[in-house]
Each structure stands twice: as C-alpha cells, then as structure tokens.
Amino acid sequence: MKHNDGAQEKSVRTLRVGEQVRHVLSEILQRGDVHDETLASHMVSITEVRMSPDLRHATVFVKPLLGKDEAAVLKALRTNTAYLQREVAHRVKMKYAARLKFLADESFDEGSHIDALLRDPHVAQDIGSDD
C-alpha cells in the first residue's frame, strides 16, 4: 500500500511543478521579457506543462491567440528556449533546470472537430434516435 502512496505523491508533485512552470512562462511572455519580435506581437497561451517524473523535462503546450501564426510562434519559442529555461530555473526552485520542449496544443482543434462531427446531420440523426 505504501508504494502506491509514493506514486500518488509523485504525480501530485509533477502536476504542482508543471503548474508552477506554466505560471512562470505565462508571466514571462505576458510581460514581454523575451526580446523577440514574433513573441512581442503575439499573445501566447501556455495551456499546459507536463513534467517528466524526474522533473528534468517539461513539455510545454502553447496556443497563440486565435491560433494565428502558430508555426512562427513555436519557432520563436524554440529559438529562445535557453533564455526561458534559465528564467524558469531561477524562478522555480528545483534541483535541476528542466529542459523545455514546446509543442502546439491541438486539444482546441480536436474539440472543434468533435463539435463539428456532432453537428453533422447524419451523426445527429443517430444520436437523436430512440432505438
């Protein structure tokens, strides 16, 4: 039973640290601390940060406002990864500086796709039937 508690504690810890990293990155981008024209001209949401169990790697999911220029925003974030890693390491007290990996958050697109499928007349007819 004790082993399971440790796994639970670890997952809570990774979630907590991920949320701290998300908050710090959001703050850095919102304040315009990164001197990059693309990032300065786009509002970027950090939607989620998933930490590895050892807290050495962070997968950062991002979404530019309205989904505009996603490729350019990702490129700018990746170009400035070293600066962002240093800032996160400085502001979030961890044993090791987490390596950041930036990915586009596709969950909004998936949600829109599912919504569109549910509105399709053929699907709606199947959902509405009482058979």
What does this structure look like?
This protein is α+β, with helices and mostly antiparallel strands. 58% of the residues lie in helices and 17% in strands. Strands 1-2-3 form a 3-stranded mixed β-sheet. A hairpin with a 5-residue loop joins strand 1 (44-51) and strand 2 (57-64). The radius of gyration is 19 Å and the shape is flat. The relative contact order is 0.14.
Task: List the keywords.
131 residues, alpha+beta
Structural class: alpha+beta
Largest sheet: 3 strands, mixed
Q: Regions with pLDDT < 50 over 5+ consecutive residues? A: none
What's the alpha carbon Rg, rounded to whole Å? 19 Å
Task: Round the mean pLDDT to the nearest integer and report it.
Answer: 84
Strand content: 15-25%
Strand order of the largest sheet: 1-2-3
Q: Give the N-to-C terminal Cα separation.
A: 46 Å
List the helices and strands and how they pair.
Layout: H1 2-31, H2 37-40, E1 44-51, E2 57-64, H3 70-79, H4 81-91, E3 99-104, H5 107-119, H6 121-128
Parallel strand pairs: 2-3
Antiparallel strand pairs: 1-2
Helix pairs in contact: 1-4
Write a concise synopsis of the structure shown:
58% of the residues lie in helices and 17% in strands.
